[in-house]
Design a protein that fits this description.
Elements lengths: L13 H5 L8 E2 L6 E7 L4 H18 L3 E7 L9 H14 L1 H14 L8 H12 L3 H9 L4 H13 L7 E4 L2 E4 L3 H14 L4
Parallel strand pairs: 2-3
Antiparallel strand pairs: 1-3, 2-4, 4-5
Helix pairs in contact: 2-4, 3-4, 4-5, 5-6
Length: 198
């Protein structure tokens, strides 16, 4: 007999949760939210651009204080040549001002069609100046790739979870690809029902 045995007293997705480290990653939503969504994303990925408004706007509007969203970098360098540079810059921004990370996240996806490997840093620094970030400090962090090890650690985590594309979402341990809004709602609602919160 072949099959999978589940311990009903344990979360079936606990193995995935055990592979996640969220201690120093950008997030929004209440710390005690019953639903945690972890996005492994790529700043050059068109599908991530499509998913972003769902996570940033639709989820908070529909679920108020029930969902917390985390972001982890997973640049797919083989198809997105400037994604790693954007990931490194995003971590530099996060360390300078955690709240500014999400402004960068929104800005990057809005400007994604206009960005490329040649103008990325220039555009990021110009945006940072308008946001109130220290441009000199940010430029130094980007040019020295000070946060590259953090990006590499996030990529390793994605691989450990079996992620192969972006966006990959981990919803309370359940690994799924990017979803359209009705499907994302379905998964969140199932989790809430499982927790007897809906």
């Amino acid at each position: 007999i072949k099959g999978t045995a589940w311990n009903l007293a344990r979360n079936p997705f606990q193995a995935n949760l055990d592979k996640l480290t969220l201690k120093d990653d950008p997030s929004f939503g209440p710390a005690n939210a019953p639903i945690t969504i972890v996005e492994f994303g790529d700043f050059q990925c068109p599908d991530c651009k499509s998913e972003a408004p769902l996570l940033r706007e639709a989820v908070p509007l529909a679920y108020d204080n029930k969902v917390r969203v985390f972001f982890k970098n997973f640049p797919l360098e083989s198809i997105h040549p400037w994604a790693r540079a954007a990931a490194i810059a995003s971590r530099c921004i996060y360390h300078q001002d955690a709240a500014a990370f999400w402004k960068f996240y929104d800005w990057d996806y809005e400007k994604q069609p206009d960005l490329n490997g040649d103008n990325l840093t220039e555009n990021i620094l110009s945006w940072a100046g308008k946001t109130g970030l220290d441009q000199t400090k940010l430029k130094g962090c980007i040019e020295t790739k000070a946060t590259e090890k953090e990006v590499d650690a996030s990529i390793a985590e994605a691989h450990a979870l079996g992620a192969s594309g972006t966006p990959t979402l981990i919803i309370n341990g359940r690994k799924i690809g990017g979803l359209q809004w009705p499907d994302l709602q379905l998964v969140i609602n199932l989790e809430l029902q499982h927790l007897n919160l809906k």
